[in-house]
């Protein structure tokens, strides 16, 4: 009988797959099997000794059954003003997801199903007249994680109850409500 994959196993596999994307992981000299592993990031292009290094990378965050990938990179102003800048960022996300799925499969021998939840949120900040930073985030729904409550559902229920209790304190209109202990006013 096959072992059932738990939510913890899925999250642990995703985190290990993301951890395997460290800088230098694509170089065949540093991999276990001696093969190049391309992530699709800009830092993989060129020689790390001769060429100027491009700072880019990603991180993952899991909240309920939603995986959020945050991508950050250093870009020039000419790249930003090109017509296909947003398409390039979306392509980076596709490459990252492809890498995560491949690594997840090699780590856990299970498939990872990720469904896109809309377009990427792209935020560009100017560092100088030549360079800028781009921070982009995109959310994916993780397949195989059923019967999970999201953080928003949990927090809204708890918030609603606590706000209702707070509003009910000291109100004379509602019978059965108690007044705060520090009230010393005589009628």
**Averaging pLDDT over every residue, what do you get?**
77
Strand count, sense and barrel status of the largest sheet are: 5 strands, antiparallel
What's the total helix number?
Answer: 4
Beta content: 15-25%
Write the H/E string, N to C: HEEHHEEEH
Fraction in helix: 25-40%
Total number of domains: 1
Rg from C-alpha positions?
Answer: 24 Å
What is the 3D shape? flat
Q: What structural class is derived from the secondary structure elements?
A: alpha+beta
Low-confidence segments: none
Quote the distance from N terminus to C terminus. 73 Å
* Total beta-strand segments: 5
Explain what this protein looks like in three dimensions.
This protein is α+β, with helices and mostly antiparallel strands and 187 residues long. It has one domain. Helix content is 32%, strand content 21%. It has four helices and five strands. The chain has helices at 7-19, 77-80, 85-108, 151-168; strands at 56-63, 66-76, 114-116, 121-126, 131-142. Strands 1, 2, 3, 4 and 5 form a five-stranded antiparallel β-sheet that branches. The model has no long low-confidence stretch (mean pLDDT 77).
